[in-house]
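Lab notebook, bench 4. Still working through the backlog of constructs that have no structural model yet. Next entry is a single chain of 440 residues. Request: give me the structure tokens for it.
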Amino acid sequence: MKSAAQLRAEILQLVDEYYQERFAGHSFDPGKDTIHYAGRVFDADELVKLVDSSLDFFLTASRYSDEFETAFAEFFGLSNAYLVNSGSSANLVALTALTSPKLGERRLRPGDEVVTVAAGFPTTLGPILQNQLVPVFVDVNLGDYTAIPEQIEAAIGPKTRAIAMAHTLGVPFDLDKVMRLAKEHNLWVVEDNCDALGSRYRGQLTGTFGNIATVSFYPAHHITMGEGGCVLTGDELLGRIARSLRDWGRDCYCAGGENNTCGKRFSQQFGKLPAGYDHKYVYSEIGYNLKVTDMQAAVGVAQLGKLEGFIARRKENFRKIYAMLEPYQDRLFLPHATPNSDPAWFGFVLTVKETAGFTRNDLTSFLETKRIETRNLFGGNLLRQPAFMNIDHRLVGNLANTDTIMENTFFIGVYPGIDDRQLEYIDSVFSRFMRGERLS
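Model written out:
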């Protein structure tokens, strides 16, 4: 009779063999394979850890979640990293944390203003509205697609209490300007770092400048858990609040399966509850249940070991695509980093010039027909989206560049799954289009 440990070892060995048979060794076929804009890149380690976690049958957050949170916090040099079920949930937790009564007079209240951009993903904006705050929109630059620094300063008024923006497609926004303004005006800073895991500004990782930051582990992102995200902060109070919001709003901070970590489980007074009410059932925030499963975290642990290599490959692919497309700058705005930054590029973003002689849709239709995936820069101008057309907001200047992005901008992939053969194919397809070939 084999022991459970022996059976587990045999199962995991078979999983490794399954990976080799099912997933390993595929080479790109330009006649039929699609070059995706992004995607999961993995090997046997992800499958082995995933199955290993499933064999515990703990299901909710457990040992792999703890391992990931510890390692991820160490990567950033921060004290708190809390896994949630998506990057969008991370944004919700991060913004909502700033409304907690525990923050006293600094808490955000309904009607307070938050500086942000309209050229981006909706779940950067959504939590501002969900917390009854008022977004103040500034325009972005073409080329780096981050907020125009002078407009950020102009946006700050008597009701402004925070700045919450993304490092769009991996490009850090002007953190010198933002952090200076935050200090001068006592503003909170939320870094949406979902596109920018591994990006640096003046050598420092993005996600470590503001009060609180977020990361996404959706398959399109730098590492993946399938679904998943993380809230990061070096502020112990914000960390405690974020964890509470993730975990139903409870005041207790015991890990799953643990009891009485604080040593005062039945000896405290909260609200109007009876003295000594069980601390595990005291709720100090209006929270959610946004935890990951340990199976997701197991995949994340395997992915985290590959992160530095993934970042390097994204930068290399970006450089190679830039060299391919540099001859077409008379027709295309090519992407560039902001000053003092070193992006871990999410994608290769292009804006078709008005004088190009073709439209974005002409080019993207051609690329898609040739099996090269494209994506718009997310929601374009979010104020023109059905969900956001009638929201309460304030505008600084106009959003001319944001509208240009809505009409003329798209991106292709630089993710580590794109190899040199695929890059050569991308080069050939762009060349054919630029020489005048069109869809019949």
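Notes after review: Residues 306-434 form a domain with the Aspartate Aminotransferase, domain 1 fold (CATH 3.90.1150.10). The first strand starts at residue 80 and ends at 84. Flag for follow-up if needed.
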